[in-house]
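Annex B. Sample input.
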Amino acid sequence: MKTIKKISIVFGLSLLAFNCSSDDDNTEMMVVEPDFSGTYVQKDQMGRPAVNTVFVSAASKDAFNVTIPSEQNAAFQSMFQTNLEALSPAYGNDGDKNALQLDAATFTGLLATDVLNVSLDGTTTFYDGDNVLTGRNLTDDVITVELLLIFGGETFMENPELSNDNVDANDKTFLTSFPYLASPW
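Annex B, continued. Sample output.
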């Protein structure tokens, strides 16, 4: 019985060694193309960070996320305006504007079309004091800019306790070449 077990083990190991040969140079590589068949559904839009999160009610999230940007203003601007006026004391009076001199209706019309604009021939920044929503640099403090535009009023001075996320820098320095993002911890 021991001999049969030894023969079985030796035979099994020899099959394993034979099948694990490194001589695979003659094996053809099978190229597999990606399969794009099926139905794909967009689940989330976030052209401008936090805009969708703050101004779209929970019951409307799915509808907003599948609405093409060119139709978002018509479909959602009034909801954005209602939520802005309820949220921000800087828009508490008729005629109130933000530092861009946009009243609630105009500002929420801009926000409701949730895309990231990009300047092709000028400064690319979220906001630098002169250029507004012309793109986004990694160093742009997007959330603070959004808070200032929502709560800061006409001079960015209203509601200072609501107008800053107090995150003034990235935790790691950005790289000077692609991929620009610092490696993870």
